[in-house]
Structure formats: C-alpha cells, structure tokens
UniProtKB/TrEMBL annotation:
GO molecular function: tRNA-uridine aminocarboxypropyltransferase activity
Source organism per UniProt: Vigna radiata var. radiata (Mung bean)
Protein name (record): tRNA-uridine aminocarboxypropyltransferase
Signal peptide as annotated in the record: 1-18
Gene Ontology annotations of biological process type: tRNA processing
Family annotation (InterPro entries): DTW, DTWD2/TAPT
C-alpha cells in the first residue's frame, strides 16, 4: 500500500491478530483495502459471540449471511412443516453454532437420547449458552433464547437423518402410507408445540399437517415470537367466540363440544372456501407437548388472551375420554388422556354428531387421522423391534388427575 495505515489501522491489526492467530496479516488476499477487509471480518467475529446480548439489527444476520452463506435456507426451514419465515433468533443461533465449529476446529456431533450435542463441542457450547442465558435481562428473552436454541440444535442434528415430512429416520419413512384429505374449510387447527416436541419421532401433532396440509393445521412453536404473532393475528381476526383450546384444565371454563356449539346456526349449505372470511372459521388450539410442559404453555395462552380480549379465560373444550392407539408406545399420565392427533380426531368425531356439521363428512376426516396414527404406530413399532427395544408400554406414576 502506498500510504500509512495510521494508529487506528495498527490497533485493528493487533485486534485481528488476537482473534485470528492462524491468519496473519500478510497472508490476506482480497480486492478491498486491508483496513476494510480486516475490520469487516472482526465485526463478524464479534457479532458472532455477542449477538444475543444486544438488540437485533439488520447487520447481525443479513450481512453474515451475505459473507459466509445462509446456514439454513427458507426451503429447508419450511420443509419441516411450517409456512413462516426462518425465525431471527433461530437463524442467529444456527449461525453461531457453525461459527463455534470454526473457532474450535471441531465438528458438531449429535446422538444419544434426544439427539443432544456430544463430545468436547457440547462442553464448550454449553458454557457459552449458559453464560448467554444468564446475561439475558428478563424471563421473556430467556424463554425465546431457550426455545430457539432447542429448535436450532434439532434442525442441525436431523439433517440427512430424519424425513422432513414425517420426522422419522429415512429408512422408516411412512409418508407413502399416509392418505391426505381436505379439512373442512370452516375449521383450522393450530399446533401449539413445545420446542422439545419439535422433530420428535413419536410426536403425533405432525400427522395433522401431513393429512390436511400446513394451511389447515398450522405449526406454532412455543416461545418463538414470529410463530406466536402469526397465530394470534389470525385469532384476533376470528374473534374470541371462534377460538377454542383443547385442554382438560379444571381451573378453566370447560365446555363439551355439544354445549360449545349448540347455539350455532343450522345450515344445509356448505360454504365454499373462497367465500369464507376469517370470522367464520373456527380455530382450535391443540397444546402439543408433554403434560409437564403443557401447564406453562396453557398459562402463556391465557395471559395473551387476557391482553387481547380482557379478563375472561380462553374458552376450553373437553372431549369424551378415549385412549389412542399411541398409548401402546408413548406413555400418558392416565388412560383418559390422549395424544394430540387423537384429540383432533375425537373433536372432529364429536362435531360430526351435531346437526350443523353432519353434512360435511368430518367423520371421514377423523378416520384419516386415525389411519395415519396407525401408520405411525406401526413404523415406530417396527423400528423398535429392529433395534432390539421394548414395545411394551411402561406405566407412568403421576399425580395428575
């Protein structure tokens, strides 16, 4: 260069040499001035390590994606069962995990129960994420970070291993045996899913969008602000009278299906999908998570409902008890509790008995869910047998009644 770098340039060189000891200054080969090149690279590294501790900016993910390539594409993200954009914090955490790989010169490995990170990388990443979590200012930020990290790790750990449609290992894919059908356009399901159930092989909520499609059965991930905003925007348009939660909480206002819909006007004319407006669609929220996690998820729904509609509780529907076929493999606290997909099938079956729904064949739509559940049970059973694992349901001790 024909001019002096100056004091600022020397300071930048020293900072870069500290952060990048394996890439000395004189080996750099780029078409832009040295000062700009090194300063941009340094900013990328600093952003990588401190991105959670400051507000989101347009630089944080967009510029890094331009310089180093998007780690998770929109196509890949939506392939797992959603129509949303890639959540900002999930994108940041995925990028930071890949950056940590470079800094440690080690590859991420996943395995064991739940497909968790393994080896020395896990130890270093655990220290980093714990420090980040503790530094976050409030419980809402902590929840968002927790959820995003769970999802980011599950995406990276499932690449090339799980089928994106059915969330089963490739060799056990059941997609060809699932029969799809259309859900009545006056009904929409929302799968309010805990991050620990995302990409879980024996999760049953995924069956609903396998059968009905992602627009009729929409995924909403707990603690992911972009997802929750999409769901609540739709619920606001529909109005509280058209929103129901399927959750057997005795402290909430519970109604049976018949009591909830006995005031609905009876009509023999089925409304065409193109003629339906947001306020004519019934929205059903299914809490998709373990029973231990569901209480916190339901409280979050209740708190949001009070902000949107006032002090009244979010209306809940109770279903007639019935055990799902999945009881054989996936334990429930008691035999009167059921899995997410079976709850959806039970709801459709009970609605079918009402005069205003009798002509739209909800029973056949319920049968499609039950068939897919049987397919999932068969696929999981064959996998367990092949791997030498027990296929006997273990009884679980619980205080839940």
């Amino acid at each position: 260069m024909g001019h002096s770098l100056g004091l600022l340039g020397i300071m930048q060189m020293k900072l870069v040499s500290t952060l990048l000891p394996t890439k000395p200054f004189f080996l750099c080969n780029c078409s832009v001035p040295f000062r700009l090149c090194f300063w941009n690279k340094t900013r990328v590294l600093l952003t990588r390590h401190y991105s959670y501790l400051r507000p989101h900016s347009s630089f944080s993910y967009t510029n890094m994606a331009q310089e180093e390539g998007v780690v998770v594409s929109l196509q890949e993200w939506q392939g797992w069962g959603t129509t949303s954009p890639l959540p900002t914090m999930v994108a940041q955490i995925v990028h930071d995990l890949k950056g940590l790989e470079q800094d440690l010169d080690a590859h991420m490995r996943f395995g064991g129960n739940g497909g968790k990170l393994q080896g020395n990388f896990r130890i270093q990443e655990d220290k980093k994420h714990r420090a980040t979590y503790q530094a976050l200012a409030d419980s809402e930020k902590k929840l968002q970070f927790y959820s995003a990290r769970q999802i980011a790790c599950r995406i990276l750990g499932s690449r090339g291993y799980l089928c994106q449609k059915c969330w089963l290992p490739m060799e056990d894919c059941m997609c060809s045996e699932v029969t799809s059908c259309s859900l009545h356009p006056g009904i929409r399901f929302w799968l309010y899913m805990h991050p620990k159930d995302f990409l879980r092989q024996n999760n049953t909520g995924k069956i609903l969008w396998q059968v009905f499609g992602v627009d009729a059965a929409s995924l909403c991930l707990f603690g992911i602000p972009e997802h929750e905003e999409i769901m609540w925007n739709s619920l606001k348009v529909a109005g509280k009278s058209k929103v129901w939660c399927l959750y057997p909480n005795k402290s909430a206002v519970l109604k049976s299906v018949q009591n909830a819909f006995d005031q609905e006007p009876v009509t023999s004319d089925e409304v065409a999908p193109s003629e339906l407006k947001g306020e004519t669609i019934h929205h059903f929220i299914l809490i998709d998570g373990t029973w231990s996690n569901s209480a916190a998820m339901f409280r979050r729904l209740q708190d949001k409902a009070k902000l949107v509609w006032g002090d009244e509780d979010l209306p809940c529907i109770s279903l007639n008890p019935g055990a799902s076929a999945m009881h054989k493999l996936r334990p429930q606290p008691s035999w009167d509790r059921t899995c997410t997909a079976a709850a959806a099938a039970g709801l459709l079956s009970e609605l079918q008995l009402l005069s205003q729904f009798r002509s739209i064949e909800l029973d056949k739509q319920a049968e499609a869910i039950e068939h897919a559940l049987s397919v999932l049970l068969d696929a999981l059973t064959k996998r367990r047998v092949r791997m030498g694992r027990s296929i006997t349901r273990k009884m679980r001790q619980t205080n839940i009644r």
